């Protein structure tokens, strides 16, 4: 059977790329077994403020619920509530090599200075632990996380070869459109919740007028033609991707409907606002106690499967059994 997992790092407020690349595909897959978690341990890999981490963790969990994660069908929990993540992380570090982790693109982009937290280097191994704990088959993620899922596969296959069939080997799955939403102000960069300049980032909780202003100011490409050409015209193509994915159409086909950028942008703004307004309303209706209740129940439900995996790994590696 298919088992999916989706994780979100509370390092900033969720943005549209998170929704289109991962949240929506996960919500749509909820007919099958689904695990969703707030990856608060991952947020400790970069300088952080404890108070802000607590607030963002609650906000991310609330937005996941508002965006359609159904706590009756899906196990939704906070990573740090399950010690099994940290334990499996360490055990997997003993199968991973320095070289294969060091070459991860995200570390090359963000890490390297002598003040870099060691956990930023080993973060992909923690991500592998997150996935392998739950015997996941499919990991719906944006394109930026593909390399980490490949590493997870490599670690699982190697472990199974050495120690027998302990892990389920997962694969990454990406949406056809919007697997890498670009920053509106800098189409060469991916939209990200921690981007320094936020005028190109559409946050899920941005009010409609802010969303519209950011979209109307989006950087477009030289010329005035509206054509779908992601390599040659990344700015316009990103807008076409957004409109196509919000309205369930094909980006190359809708390009023909437009003769200039102005009307394209205002249609993108209408579509994004129509997509996000209901999520924002549901978010406003959620109380802190509701969110905390869901997370507590989720951690309880996730624990049995996770603990069973860790017991299997410990035994395979020659460690003593545990009561
Ligand atoms: P994070 O928190 O950076 O992003 C969460 C999810 O959103 C996707 N995403 C995007 N998709 C399309 N376009 C974008 N511009 C865009 N920006 C973000 C990400 O690909 C991701 O799917 N390491 C993960 C969190 C994590 C995780 C896991 C995910 C930890 N353990 C286990 C899945 C399974 C991360 O930093 O995602």
SSE string: EHEHEHHHHEHEEEHHHHH
**Biggest beta sheet summary:** 3 strands, parallel
Radius of gyration, in Å, reads 20 Å
Overall mean pLDDT stands at 95
State the shape.
globular
Q: What is the tally of beta strands?
A: 7
Extract low-pLDDT stretches. Answer: none
Structural class: mainly alpha
InterPro entries: aa-tRNA-synth_Ic, Rossmann-like_a/b/a_fold, Trp-tRNA-ligase, Trp-tRNA_synthetase
Keywords: Aminoacyl-tRNA synthetase, ATP-binding, Ligase, Nucleotide-binding, Protein biosynthesis
Protein name: Tryptophan--tRNA ligase
GO biological process, one term: tryptophanyl-tRNA aminoacylation
What report would you give on this structure?
- GO terms for molecular function: ATP binding; tryptophan-tRNA ligase activity.
- Keywords: Aminoacyl-tRNA synthetase, ATP-binding, Ligase, Nucleotide-binding, Protein biosynthesis.
- The chain contains 12 helices and 7 strands.
- The strands form 3 sheets. It has a 3-stranded parallel β-sheet. A two-stranded parallel sheet has the order 4-5.
- The two termini are 29 Å apart.
- It is mainly alpha-helical and 323 residues long.
- 52% of the residues lie in helices and 9% in strands.
- It is globular and about 70 Å long.
- It has helices spanning 16-28, 50-66, 84-93, 98-102, 105-110, 118-133, 146-163, 208-216, 234-246, 251-255, 261-285, 288-317; strands spanning 3-8, 33-38, 74-78, 138-140, 171-173, 182-183, 186-190.
- The structure holds tryptophanyl-5'AMP.
- Tryptophanyl-5'AMP (TYM) is lined by residues 5-9, 17-18, 20-22, 39, 42, 127, 130-131, 139, 141-142, 144-145, 179-181, 190-192.
- Tryptophanyl-5'AMP (TYM) binds at residues 5-9, 17-18, 20-22, 39, 42, 127, 130-131, 139, 141-142, 144-145, 179-181, 190-192.
